């Protein structure tokens, strides 16, 4: 979650018993180093870094996570094969985000320690499959642990993910709206007021589909796509959109990236409360299943 998953959010998640993740996004090497230092100062627990493989600074970012001995790296928006050896040699566990069981198989062969199977319910850059079909097919395709993502914002989603064979879950949209998230208040309010149908997909025709909340930007982008406008014209509108929404609070012309679970997010809560509530709720669901004689 570029511009959202900062030291503040990552350390809050790690302090509350999750594995907080800093989004390297398009951060410059010095900005990433500063974010890692800030997180180290705010938690004694492990945390990870997400590398967005289309970043112009990706080579330097890989070098930094190796030097800083970051224990877990997740990757997004591509195949991390090229960086796998370097990361593994530094002792880093590599967990690529995959959008298909086929890519999960390929990264397992390359040495991935686990995969995050992210369904197209998720916000931001997405694949084509839903969590419901992607997770069990990925579980069947690989021997490494599968972490489910996309469409999870409460205990029911967690229980569903574990029922599909996942061994962990990743949460985005809900944490973006947590108290500790530094996302602009306008961004959080927009997510809170959204219904699930507001999370629309643009960029399908450019090969980089992105899910974000309906606004004047998505309207213009969809119009351009319908007109088969050039990639350059499309990019001109989209570029810098996430930062505009998240940091400047421009939720009209900015890109309010959020998943379909936006419709489930109703309140801004501290991270600790979110994690405790989800954990207790999932335990209760599985206790009920056990009492009914249903084995997981
Ligand atoms: O990466 C994300 N979410 C993102 S990245 C991002 S920045 C961006 N903006 C516009 C276009 C492209 C990037 C905003 N949100 N989530 C993880 C994720 N990875 N979701 C889907 C994928 C993915 C998709 C296809 C990973 C691999 C893949 O296949 C690549 C291949 O080589 O087969």
Q: What would you say this structure looks like, in words?
A:
The protein is globular. The model has no long low-confidence stretch (mean pLDDT 96). Helices cover 44% and strands 14% of the residues. The protein has a 7-stranded parallel sheet. Strands 6-10-9 form a 3-stranded antiparallel sheet, with helices on one face. It has 296 residues and is α/β, with parallel strands linked by helices. It is built from 13 helices and 10 strands. Helix 1 packs parallel to helix 2, helix 7 crosses helix 13 and helix 10 packs antiparallel against helix 11. The protein has 2 domains: 176 residues, TIM Barrel, CATH 3.20.20; 77 residues, no CATH class. The site of ligand TUI has 17 residues, from strand 4 and strand 6.
The figure for the number of domains is 2
Which value, in Å, is the CA radius of gyration?
Answer: 18 Å
Overall geometry comes to: globular
- CATH architecture field of the largest domain: Alpha-Beta Barrel
Name the ligand types: ligand TUI
Strand content: 5-15%
Give average pLDDT, whole number. Answer: 96
CATH superfamily of the largest domain: Aldolase class I
Task: Estimate percent helicity.
Answer: 40-55%
Short description:
The protein is of the alpha/beta class and 296 residues long.
């Amino acid at each position: 979650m570029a511009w959202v998953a900062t030291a503040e959010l990552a350390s809050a998640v790690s302090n509350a018993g999750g594995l907080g993740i800093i989004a390297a996004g398009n951060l410059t090497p010095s900005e990433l180093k500063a974010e890692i230092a800030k997180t180290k100062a705010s938690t004694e627990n492990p945390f990870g870094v997400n590398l967005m493989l289309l970043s112009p600074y990706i080579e330097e970012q890989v070098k930094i996570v190796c030097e800083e001995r970051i224990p877990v790296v997740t990757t997004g928006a591509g195949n991390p094969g090229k960086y796998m050896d370097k990361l593994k040699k530094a002792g880093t566990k590599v967990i690529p985000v995959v959008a298909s069981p086929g890519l999960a198989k390929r990264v397992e062969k390359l040495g991935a320690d686990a995969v995050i199977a992210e369904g197209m319910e998720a916000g931001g850059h997405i694949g084509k499959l839903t969590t419901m079909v992607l997770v069990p097919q990925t579980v069947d395709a690989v021997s490494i642990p599968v972490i489910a993502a996309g469409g999870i914002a409460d205990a029911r989603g967690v229980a569903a993910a574990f029922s599909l064979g996942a061994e962990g879950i990743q949460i985005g949209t809900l944490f973006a709206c947590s108290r500790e998230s530094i996302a602009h208040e306008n961004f959080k309010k927009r997510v809170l007021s959204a219904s699930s149908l507001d999370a629309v997909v643009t960029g399908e025709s450019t090969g980089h589909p992105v899910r974000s909340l309906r606004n004047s930007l998505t309207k213009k982008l969809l119009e351009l796509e319908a007109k088969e406008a050039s990639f350059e014209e499309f990019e001109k509108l989209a570029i810098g959109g996430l930062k505009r929404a998240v940091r400047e609070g421009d939720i009209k012309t900015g890109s309010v990236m959020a998943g379909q679970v936006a419709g489930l997010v109703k309140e801004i809560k501290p991270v600790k409360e979110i994690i405790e509530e989800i954990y207790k709720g999932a335990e209760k669901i599985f206790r009920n299943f056990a009492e009914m004689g249903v084995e997981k």
